[in-house]
Amino acid sequence: MSQIKPLILPVETQVREFDAKLLLACVAAERGMPTYIGFQNRIRDKITSLPPGIFIAKGFASKKAKIMGILTGLGHEIYAWDEEGLVHHPAPVYHDRRLSKKSLEYLSGLFAWGDDYKEMVEAFPEYDGTPIYCTGNPRADLLRPDVRSFYDSTVAQIRDRLGGFILLNSSFGTSNLATGNPTERQKGTAASVRDTKTWWQGQLAYRVDLFELYRDMTGKLAARFPDKKFVVRPHPAESLETWREFAAPFPNLSIEHEGNVAPWLMACDLMIHNGCQTGIEGALLGTPVVAYQPIRSELYDRPLPNAVSHQCDTLEQLYDRVDAILQGNAPATDPAAVMTVLADYLVQEKDRLSADHIVDILQEIAERNTGGMAPSAGARYSAWCAAELRGLGKWLRSFRSNDIYSNWHQRQQFPELELAEVDEKIARFKNVLGRFKDVKVTVVQKDIFLVSQ
Known about the structure:
45% of the residues lie in helices and 14% in strands.
């Protein structure tokens, strides 16, 4: 058997990804595979200080090819999954913006949410046969009946603080962007999704209009039910200040963005969204989920989350539906029926976590791996220099106020995380699953942790 390589799990957005990847880290460590987990930007900037391992990339668009080349030169083996792979853009648009022949060449394999995603990647005109494994995703593991009690204490804290409330999930990262004003970009319309440049322009215009309608609905709903608390949870890429300014006149409306969305979905009385993946997550948890669709578009709508939700086109329909749910007069959400709708989109095995499935595959590949050709000393040195230069460039950009690498934006993506918090999360996984007895966590450096036996 080849020497065991460590697993490296970069996290771009803490509230969305960290808990799921920590579960995967625990499964890997339980199997003897030490795992580095932490903020994606910090891991990339400090990659020369980590041992060569199995790097799980978040995406594989053309802009990822440069860092993938560096990782390969440093001796890392790269696998990937796409956090956006469950609710994705139409295939031609996805192929144009999120797939790249060059990036695929660096990958040893892809982990797919389900058959739909696998088939879409295989339809990419430049698909090179990179192995695709339908494993589901650890984010879905957290929603399983046998795992979701991981969040029980957090749910209790939310309910103690807020009581009953209605959750409004905002998914307008392109039209309410934290680092810019996309409404100033050129607008346009598309005849079909194959005209991808025009499609993006038209989609932006549509999402800008939809954001204004969604925000208008939020205020009117808060005014319609003045005795009910409302919580808006913006997308991690959105401007929080835009929402805070909007919420100021409404005493029963607050803006929250801390922690994973799952306990908020479990704590609320119902959730309202438009085309947001959290609509699927809420439905899987059995939470009443409503899709507000004041405008519709066959080109730009994200149909899957809306398909597992109560659908309302007008404010009056929404008022009636909210009132019916609050009064207990609406049909309950049936997670089994939801899974039937999602059958082609999401793998969720009855007796095995997706995290276990992923580690099974990695270990099986490692056992039959003959070692391969390691990068030459020259290639390693070139990659080391490129990584250090890249890290310096990103550090210089951190001083810009309106840059995705600015310090404030990075802290919005990945708030500072203490060792005690990570240790407490692992303790909860141990308690819920009855596993990971010998798993521990240590700090490697700021925002990077090692989970091991």
